[in-house]
Amino acid sequence: MQLEVVWSDINDRRKAAPKPEKLVGFHSDIVRNAAAKYPGHPLILAGKSLGSRISCMVAAENDIDVSAVVCLGHPLKEWGDRSMLATIALGAAQVCS
């Protein structure tokens, strides 16, 4: 089995992170390319904080078959309304405990 790690660092403390829609679109393309490069191999996404939320949202895309998502430090609050729990991204993915 082959293993390829694709790294993306979205944590630039000098400025705000791009909007989630832009990040999901960008990372979805990367994931589709990796899946096409290694058909039949498991595809595992991982992220920390905002990266974990983006990974969940990418995994929920209909045309992407993800085997697992590893979420480290998943943010518990929504971007705009800090009083709302962030259940949308996790709710779209199948959660295992």
From TrEMBL:
Origin: domain of life: Eukaryota
Query: Pfam families from the entry?
Result: Abhydrolase_11
KANL3/Tex30 alpha/beta hydrolase-like domain location: 11-84
The name this protein goes by in its record: KAT8 regulatory NSL complex subunit 3/Testis-expressed sequence 30 protein
